[in-house]
Amino acid sequence: MAERSPKIQELDPVWTQILREGQDALQDEPLLGGLIHSSILHHKSIEKALSYRVSLKLASGEMSEQLLREICDEAHKSDPNIAISARADLTAVFERDPACHRLIQPMLFFKGFQAVQAYRVAHWLWMQDRKDMAYFFQMRCSEVFGIDIHPNARLGKGIMIDHAHSIVIGETAVVGDNVSMLHSVTLGGTGKEEEDRHPKIGDGVLIGAGAKVLGNIKVGDCSRIAAGSVVLEEVPACKTVAGVPARIVGDAGCSQPAVSMDQIPEG
Fold it and tell me: What EC number(s) is this enzyme filed under (predicted)?
């Protein structure tokens, strides 16, 4: 007897779950049938769905949806890590955002997730030396989502940007894996120097709402930056900083602050 092909659940459980949720959402809200079909159920893979969703959101009179979709498809085909990171981002949002109850929500409705996926294509373009097209993606993300991530910035996987309004991440910034940040976060430079001038955020870091991290400084793994803080100096691993300018006020409070999402320092 011929060996059976692997089930799709074994190949891509994240996409399988999204398809299942799409069918359920279609029954619950038939008026969203067009959106759910075109964005989810029509596609055979998460890569194709992401390409469609990003191109639809970023299309304008200056660049058609079809052209943008071809670019996104090319990026996904060339670099499978784009979709691997997207799966990790989806899981991160689902696990950390109490307002997210299904994987389908970020795909359809959460601009933070969608903007990060558009950035990932823009970063691929930048690395292919297609810088002008990468800048176009950056511009449209800023216009559509209110999120400005330079295509040369380096973001890890498992990124969760909650609410996501007014996020700015500069050209030489580095963000590690499993990082969570809230709205109005800035990872910015200082002065007008053109060299390495932006923050380096370690793995598992939580950056609270309105926090500003400025300059080529390191924020250690699993540290926590309290809401509204202005960070101008290096932050050791597993510490909490707060204030303007930020100072160490204690330990991070847990082993994974980016997962716990507790923004309020003790004491």
Answer: 2.3.1.30
pLDDT classification of 264: cutoffs 50, 70, 90 = low
| Length of the chain in terms of residues written | 267
For CATH 1.10.3130.10, list the domain ranges present in the chain.
15-146
Judged against a pLDDT cut of 60, whether residue 33 lies above it is answered with yes
Instruction: Give the list of residues 6+ apart from residue 40 with CB closer than 8 angstroms, or none.
Output: 18, 19, 22, 49, 104, 107, 108
Query: What's the fold here for domain 153-266?
Result: UDP N-Acetylglucosamine Acyltransferase; domain 1 (2.160.10)
Tens digit of each residue's pLDDT (9 = 90 or more) over 2-26:
444 444 445 789 999 999 999 999 9
Pick the CATH number of 15-146 from 2.10.70.10, 3.30.565.40, 1.10.3130.10, 3.40.50.300: 1.10.3130.10
